[in-house]
Write a structure and sequence with these properties.
InterPro entries: AAA+_ATPase, ABC_transporter-like_ATP-bd, ABC_transporter-like_CS, ABC_transpr_LolD-like, P-loop_NTPase. By secondary structure, this protein is of the alpha/beta class. The chain has seven helices and nine strands; from the N terminus they run E-E-E-H-E-H-E-H-H-H-E-H-E-H-E-E. The strands form two sheets. The protein has a six-stranded mixed beta sheet, with helices on both faces. Strands 2-1-4 form a three-stranded antiparallel beta sheet, covered by helices on one side. The structure holds adenosine-5'-triphosphate.
Length: 229
């Protein structure tokens, strides 16, 4: 598998925009999201900022069709997708906070299994898994079990799993929170490269340096989102 000079997995991807309209989410007594509108266009690297508990993860999960909102809609280049499985098949990739890696598997197997489940031929899946691990600097750790990896290495495996899917829309929930400064810059560079390759990328972050690297910043607070640039 080739990687192009910008640091993405080579190969075509379908450009797709994500649009949230009047997204409302009530969790228990709390109105976490109150009629939120948000757009990420193909080729855009966007940051989602806001205080702890503002609802950033909730919004990313809704945009990834992993969570049904109380109200409002999410469309993908104008299309509705019925559920998370349809979204994954359409190229909507979610890198969740906490990584959600399968611990009895190796790093490489964590990349391979979702690709094989999407019906990607085994030879290509293996090539994509290896290329994505190389992009995040873990080509020597592919055979390690998840539990043998540090928190930061696990986070990089989770990002690699997202890159291996060659996403049209990449939703990354605090993907740099456990990383040192150098690795943080590498991961942010990879997310930017995904956008430059045509993906719509939305990254939640508490890190002002990471937010500054994005083209667009959405700030979420008290249920409302404000576009800051
Ligand atoms: N299942 C649930 N039931 C009730 N409240 C919930 C549930 N899940 C999340 N919440 C609440 O929803 C709010 C938003 O949580 P969320 O994790 O989306 O925020 P966040 O901005 O991503 O926070 P952080 O930056 O700390 O990760 C929080 O107040 C949280 O306690």
């Amino acid at each position: 598998m080739r990687t192009d000079p910008a640091g993405t997995l080579a190969g075509a991807r379908t450009p797709m925009a994500v649009a949230g309209r009047a997204i409302t989410m009530r969790l228990g007594e709390r109105l976490v999201l109150d009629a939120v509108d948000l757009d990420v266009e193909p080729g855009t690297f966007a940051a989602l900022t806001g205080p702890s508990g503002a609802g950033k993860s909730t919004l990313l999960w809704i945009l990834g069709r992993a969570l049904e909102p109380t109200g409002g809609s999410v469309t993908y280049s104008g299309r509705l997708l019925p559920d998370r499985e349809a979204a994954a098949r359409a190229g909507v990739v979610l890198v969740p906070q906490g990584n959600a890696l399968v611990t009895p598997l190796t790093a490489r197997e964590n990349l391979l299994v979702p690709l094989l489940m999407l019906g990607i031929p085994a030879k290509e899946a293996h090539a994509r898994a290896d290329a994505a691990l190389t992009l995040v600097g873990l080509d020597d750790s592919g055979t390690h079990l998840v539990e043998e990896l540090s928190g930061g290495q696990q986070q990089r495996v989770a990002v690699a799993r997202g890159l291996a899917a060659r996403p049209s829309i990449l939703l990354a929930d605090e993907p740099t929170s456990d990383l040192d400064a150098t690795t943080r810059e590498i991961i942010v560079g990879l997310l930017r490269a995904e956008a430059e390759a045509g993906a719509a990328v939305l990254m939640s972050t508490h890190d002002s340096w990471c937010a500054d690297q994005a083209d667009v910043e959405y700030h979420l607070d008290d249920g409302h989102v404000e576009r800051r640039r």
